[in-house]
Design a protein that fits this description.
The chain is globular. α1 packs parallel to α4 and α2 runs antiparallel to α3. By secondary structure, it is α+β, with helices and mostly antiparallel strands. It has four helices and four strands, in the order αβααβαββ. The termini are far apart.
């Protein structure tokens, strides 16, 4: 009797916050990282402002520890308070930011990300001159 082919998940459709996701050091670029944050197949509506949170780490190893906590189900704001080297008291909240107000690489990644909650975050990683960022978006307008 012929065996049924096994269904496989499309890695591009899996939310970045999924527990089975591996780290981004596997040669992916920022654009691919940002695309992983979107689990719906449809494009996001253009936005002029986003409500963003981030975890900023100077060292790659610390960023990887924060990612591990997130993948194990940690709330984004709690992980930000523990690991972020910026805005830690606010759980990484940057508030509402309009286009042009952020670092170009950070902004590109953030505006490509669909909104999520701190309890079930969809996040993306990006490296800027400030360090390693893990970004999530709570709202768009």
């Amino acid at each position: 009797m012929p065996s049924k082919p096994k269904a496989t998940k499309d890695p591009g459709k899996t939310p970045t916050g999924d527990n089975n996701k591996k780290g981004k050091s596997g040669g992916k670029n920022k654009k691919e990282d940002a695309a992983e944050g979107s689990s719906s197949g449809k494009a996001l509506k253009p936005a002029t402002a986003i409500n963003a949170r981030h975890i900023l780490c100077e060292k790659h190893s610390k960023k990887e520890e924060a990612l591990t906590k997130l993948r194990e189900g940690g709330k984004f704001d709690d992980v930000a308070r523990e690991f972020s080297e910026d805005k830690a008291r606010q759980g990484g909240s940057l508030g509402w930011k309009t286009r042009g107000a952020l670092d170009a690489a950070f902004e590109k990644a953030a505006y490509d990300l669909e909104p999520s909650t701190t309890a079930n975050p969809k996040f993306v990683e990006v490296k800027t001159g400030h360090g390693y960022h893990i970004i999530m978006v709570e709202g768009r307008r």
